[in-house]
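Pasting as-is:
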Amino acid sequence: MARDRSPAGPDWRALAAEAAGCQACGLWAQATQTVFGEGAVPAAIMLVGEQPGDQEDRAGHPFVGPAGRVLDEALEEAGIDRDAVYVTNAVKHFKWKPRGKRRIHDKPNRAEALACRPWLDRELELVGPDVLVALGATAAQSLLGSSFRLTQQQGTDITGTGLAPHVVATTHPSLVLRAPDPDVRDVTRRRMVQGLAVAAQLAGGRS
């Protein structure tokens, strides 16, 4: 069973309860449930992924599947306590397509990300992070615009966005899992850890 990292604040609970009934786009119809963010509120660091995966959809918690285990290990290596951060996704419902008996991840489109953006903005207001971390290109483009290129700006301190004092984009943990061989997996993982370490440094003592 996933460890409960949900914050206890009444404002967050009310927001999560409201999001549970969201039907702003069609993804709710094929998802098990809304997978809202969770963690510390307020928090120095807020992490935003793309969308919940199959196990997250079933459990109702973000980053609890294989990608979540990769993220936990990377956070620890970067010196970040996961229980001290807030973790969420740009899209709150699992988008998938069938492949036999399996549900395979399907990338959310721009309209679906925009439909979920009000929830993310309200999470940002409650969490008030010093550092906002975008995990993967889809999350980064959702936050920073379609012209953002993760390959060029990974691990850099981005300021002046109006989202948080600092924004850092780094690799999504699922990319580590999809690496074709151990050498590529190691390089991909190290890049993710480096981006998280930048976030830890920018957050200073609050992380």
